[in-house]
Amino acid sequence: MSAVNKVLIVGGGIGGLCAAIALRRKGIEVDLIELKSEWTVYGVGIIQQSNVVREMAKLGVLDGYLDAAYAFEDVAIYGPAGQQLARIPGQRLAGPAYPANVGISRLALHKVLSETALELGAKVRLGLSVESLNDTGESVEVLFTDGTGAGYDLVVGADGLFSKVRSLLFGDTYTPRFTGQSVWRYNFPRDPHIDHLANYQSAEGNAGLVPLAGDLMYLFLTSHEPSNPWMDPKTLAEQMRQRLQGFTGLIGELREQITDNSQVVYKPMEVVFVNEPWYRGRVLLIGDAAHATTPHLGQGAGMAIEDAIVLSEELTRDGGIEQQLQRFMDRRFERCKYISESSVLAGDKEMQHDREFDRIGLVKQMLARTAEPI
Ligand SMILES: Cc1cc2nc3c(=O)[nH]c(=O)nc-3n(C[C@H](O)[C@H](O)[C@H](O)COP(=O)(O)OP(=O)(O)OC[C@H]3O[C@@H](n4cnc5c(N)ncnc54)[C@H](O)[C@@H]3O)c2cc1C
């Protein structure tokens, strides 16, 4: 008999939804609460690499997910004028019939995951958070922000970078840190050449084009913003164009089409890593709540999804909850730490304009590490 039969998941983002799906597939009762009363996500896309495609197969959502995504094979790295520096072939980890990588809009991903979680019987409540957690050793007594309460065998904090569950467990020991860089994103109709992930490196920052659907792609750009300035929403398009001045070729052409301030998605990069076990008693953190990193390696959501699957596997193996959560940590800690640190390192090297840094080698190493079984 499993020690854990009833779980509360706090946070209905990628990690929380994947945990809900994975736990329901193992027959565990799941309540999920989400702070937002309208369960929406912002409308740009996300890169999901071969390890994520493999995990989506394990979650049993691969067909719906691929229908909503743009499948591609290779990752290419170009200079600022578009000259190819490297082309890294995709690895078909989900099996030969499935693609190596995908790009998917966050909205489409949310739809696939939320519909699956609900179909599998996860009970979702919106506009709700946790007020307090009282771990009695036998269960966690949860007081919700609407004044109601319930008891659970395990509480999973999947509430992202500014996790409330993390602050309930660790106080202010772990608070997000601004790395010095920001990310700019903008959607375009897909250019026919962008049938792969295209990274462009310049001395000022890195840009990339990610296919999301037959008719959609997005452009991303990283920039050095040491003072983390407030950006006037009325100037976002102009500011994004300015930061793309070092690029010619396709990126240079697209730059001139960035004119709609409301379509620019600007985000300072903030990171946090819980450098000790991500649980205390019967409360556990997963995803960005435990290990939010920069987007340089395109693996943040990938790590959250892997956390969800490993958790469902360990909770249905033998032993008490302490052993189960310790085994979860044994499988997750070093892998997530490697991704977190490598991703931050890639950003630091961009800010230092370090031309000696072997970015292509780092990407290849990351792909080899993430191809290893979880
Ligand atoms: C610019 C950028 C680009 C990125 N690109 C990629 C990429 O290409 N590929 C990739 O794999 N990763 C990428 N990432 C990382 C990825 O977005 C995150 O790692 C991923 O979203 C983490 O999922 P999560 O569920 O842990 O957290 P989140 O997605 O942040 O979800 C947390 C959820 O919890 C809810 N919540 C928050 N507080 C509470 C509370 N107190 N109570 C209840 N609910 C709460 C939130 O509303 C949200 O729905 C990128 C990140 C950034 C910033």
Question: Can you give a write-up of this model?
Answer:
The protein has helices at 14-25, 50-59, 62-67, 106-119, 164-170, 236-243, 249-255, 288-291, 300-315, 321-351, 359-371, and strands at residues 6-10, 29-34, 45-48, 69-72, 75-78, 84-88, 101-105, 123-126, 130-135, 140-144, 149-152, 154-157, 177-188, 197-201, 206-213, 216-224, 265-273, 279-280, 283-285. The chain has a single domain, classed as 3-Layer(bba) Sandwich (FAD/NAD(P)-binding domain). With 374 residues, it is of the alpha/beta class. Helix 1 (14-25) runs parallel beside helix 4 (106-119) and helix 2 runs parallel beside helix 9. The strands form four sheets. It has a seven-stranded mixed sheet, sandwiched between helices. Strands 8-2-1-12-19-18 form a six-stranded mixed sheet, with helices on both faces. The radius of gyration is 21 Å and the shape is globular. The chain is 34% helix and 28% strand. The site of flavin-adenine dinucleotide has 30 residues, from helix 1, strand 2, strand 3, helix 8 and helix 9.
The count of DSSP E runs of length 2 or more, i.e. the number of strands, is 19
Biggest β-sheet: count, sense, barrel?
7 strands, mixed
By CATH, the architecture is named: 3-Layer(bba) Sandwich
Overall 3D geometry?
globular
Hetero compounds:
flavin-adenine dinucleotide
Q: Give the overall average pLDDT.
A: 95
Roughly what percent helix?
Answer: 25-40%
* Proportion of strand residues: 25-35%
